[in-house]
Design a protein that fits this description.
Blueprint lengths: L2 H9 L5 H5 L15 H20 L6 H17 L2 H19 L5 H16 L2 H18 L5 H20 L11 H16 L5 H23 L13 E9 L13 E9 L1 H34 L6 H17 L3 H14 L4 H8 L3 E2 L22 E6 L5 E7 L7 H12 L3 E2 L1 E3 L2 E3 L1 E6 L4
Antiparallel strand pairs: 1-2, 3-6, 4-5, 4-9, 7-8
Helix pairs in contact: 1-15, 3-4, 4-5, 4-6, 5-6, 6-7, 7-8, 8-9, 8-10, 9-10, 10-11, 10-12, 11-12, 12-13
């Protein structure tokens, strides 16, 4: 039984996932500096001063107007006028484009600050667009070895994965989570062509691509079967003929019949579509495993690779198989990591002595990470982690006034999005109980 179901049964709380995703409990939001009348008056005077300066420019766009719009946007944001702040950020971005062109470094300053507001307002569609703009600018003006290019590309890929994982945003166009794996592929290709694909970064990107392939498989598994092509024809032609009566006499009748031609759905067509869907899921899962295996290969070729790095890479491969439901392969890798650390009992206990979130440290923390947060609440969450990573026997320890519907729902959603590697003993997963603060979920 999954965690969210357990919470509902234990606490008899009915939670709307859609409403909770919009709840301020789930996202860390910046405080607005309007706690006193003095700060409100200051912000209001500042906003009016910026507006007056813009009015004097008569709608022209130059470097000064871009700076004023950016300052106005931040002042409005601080004041709590979020819709007006969004418009001001858009104008600041427009000014940067007019003055410097479609791809300039100046736009990054605007985009980074603008994205902070979009996280607060949960305007995921505009945020998604901004991420693409930043990646496109980076691709145009920076070399593959530039840290700003690498950061913009990995932030876009991380955002795609986090958005799918947390369900905060599912695009209606082609910008699905499947793009994340392609972004990592392009990044590795560009870095390799420039001779800048260092082994440590290579391992990081391969592991991130593996995680992207897993969520791509989940994305495909949720698609309706009708979107998949099939080799079998959708329909087959049929012709049905019925003899006609041309005489009232019995006996032999003149040879005549009425025929009707048409088409009927071929029952094999649906089966062929389902096979194509299943094959696509398998392909993504196979690519996931291959990515983690390649990361191990890169590490093994490094002369100075540490025991910890190699063991973590092997455990990651085991975790990937655990996520895919291939428990036999997962156990094989867990046993391999256990044997590798035979002479490092302290490290073995650190990595496998208790359940841990699978593949949690692979993705970089992107600014204002949209993952669900439960805040610094006085809540302890206890649960059993089964050998398959499933969470059972959930219990929340907290004062009754803390366990509001929103708090319980946020914790349930976060757990439902998380899988745990079970504790490993003698190279095999075992059932164990884990207690963690809600803030660490």
């Amino acid at each position: 039984m999954r965690a969210r179901t357990c919470i509902a049964l234990l606490l008899l709380v009915t939670v709307s996932v859609t409403s909770l995703l919009r709840s301020p409990v789930l996202l860390a939001q910046p405080a607005i500096a309007t706690a006193t009348g003095q700060s409100e008056e200051f912000s209001d005077a500042t906003i009016e001063a910026y507006r007056s300066e813009l009015a004097s420019l008569s709608g022209t766009y130059d470097e000064s107007s871009g700076e004023i719009y950016l300052s106005l946007a931040n002042a409005l944001w601080e004041f709590g006028a979020l819709q007006e702040a969004t418009f001001a950020f858009q104008e600041a971005l427009q000014a940067a484009r007019i003055n410097g062109g479609l791809a300039t470094d100046a736009q990054f300053t605007v985009l980074n600050q603008f994205n902070g507001l979009l996280y607060e307002t949960q305007d995921w569609e505009q945020l998604d667009t901004n991420m693409y703009i930043a990646a496109d600018i980076a691709r145009r003006i920076y070399s593959p070895a530039d840290a700003r290019y690498i950061r913009a590309m990995t932030e876009l890929a991380s955002w795609k994965i986090r958005a799918f994982q947390t369900r905060v945003y599912r695009p209606v166009n082609d910008r699905s989570v499947q793009e994340a794996a392609n972004i990592y592929r392009i990044l590795m290709r560009d870095l390799e062509a420039a001779g800048q694909l260092k082994p440590e970064l290579h391992v990081k990107l391969l592991s991130s691509r593996g995680l992207a392939y897993f969520y791509s498989a989940k994305h495909v598994a949720q698609l309706p079967v009708e979107v998949f092509k099939a080799v079998s024809p959708a329909s087959q032609s049929i012709q049905q003929c019925i003899p006609t009566i041309l005489s009232v006499d019995s006996g032999v009748q003149p040879s005549a019949s009425a025929c009707n031609a048409g088409a009927s759905l071929d029952p094999e067509f649906y089966a062929a579509q389902q096979r194509e869907k299943n094959n696509t899921v398998r392909r993504h899962l196979g690519n996931m495993r291959q990515s983690f295996m390649e990361a191990i290969d890169v590490l093994e070729e490094m002369p100075d690779v540490s025991e910890r790095e190699l063991a973590i890479a092997v455990l990651n491969l085991g975790d990937a198989n655990l996520l895919a439901g291939d428990h036999a392969r997962a156990r094989t890798q867990y046993g391999r990591a256990w044997d590798m650390l035979e002479d490092s009992l302290e490290l073995r206990n650190e990595l496998m002595g208790q359940p841990v979130k699978v593949l949690e440290a692979i993705l970089d923390e992107i600014p204002r990470d949209p993952r669900m947060r439960s805040g610094n609440l006085p809540v302890n969450v206890s649960f059993d982690v089964e050998t398959t990573g499933e969470i059972t026997n959930l219990n929340l320890e907290a004062p009754a006034e803390v366990l509001t519907q929103e708090t319980v729902g946020a914790i349930g959603i976060r757990l439902d999005q998380t899988s745990y590697r079970p504790r490993i003993v003698d190279g095999r997963p075992v059932v164990s109980r884990l207690t963690v603060p809600a803030s660490e979920l």
